[in-house]
Amino acid sequence: MPEVKTATKAEVAYELVRDQLLRGDLVPGSVIQQAALARDLGISTTPLREALRRLMTEGLVELDAHRDARVTRLTAEEARDLVEIRRSLDPLAAGLAAERRTRQDLDRIRETADKLLPLRADPESSELATHRQFHIAIYTASHNQLLVQSLDGLWDKADRYRRLALEDGRTEEDLDRTHAEHLAMVDAIAAGDSGTAAAVMLAHVDASLGARAVARLTSAAAQPVARSLRGIRGART
């Protein structure tokens, strides 16, 4: 029988803390009280520090020279960067999927599409996971491993911005449009229509929660500047 590998304490700590980060339980920009967090998770601080170092390499946590830890802030710049990358890579993956998908790929895409749940305010991790599984099924059907790895590596960061955008709520029109885009992608990939698959995916990214997060954070960043300018004008009058 093959040997069953047991997860190390650091690996367990990594999964537990990562889950809290992606759920928003650890608030962006907040200081991580390591001793208290270790107690809450039922682990010691040593595997927790190892987990935090790993999360730092993924851009989810910041560590300073004194080993103080802070949850990485959400910024308009990072949100924009994520959308810009996805505007190029997601349509590429969808177009290649239409050209290269196998019967097994198509079965997986349809299976994950059937499980999609509409994302509303404060979604469960399982609800976000269904959308990841659907997109991963499309990425995998591209049969370009570097592309799959690149897009999968963006997902955790992007989920934090999706949660931010969902705080504003979504209209039924938003949900209907997203559902229609998912169905159109499945149909285009099944038909082998790479041009339509890529175009639908591009429209999907442009109207995505990530794009809404960019708008929200950009607006929030501009407000202090506007207030400052109003103050300067007021001082001159």
Automatic annotation (TrEMBL):
Keywords: DNA-binding, Transcription, Transcription regulation. SUPFAM superfamilies: GntR ligand-binding domain-like, Winged helix' DNA-binding domain. InterPro entries: GntR_C (IPR011711), TF_FadR/GntR_C (IPR008920), Tscrpt_reg_HTH_GntR (IPR000524), WH-like_DNA-bd_sf (IPR036388), WH_DNA-bd_sf (IPR036390). It holds the Pfam family FCD. Residues 7-74 form the HTH gntR-type domain. It comes from the Bacteria. Coiled coil: none annotated. The keyword Zinc does not apply. The keyword Cell cycle does not apply. One of its GO terms (molecular function) is DNA-binding transcription factor activity. This is GntR family transcriptional regulator. It comes from Kribbella capetownensis.
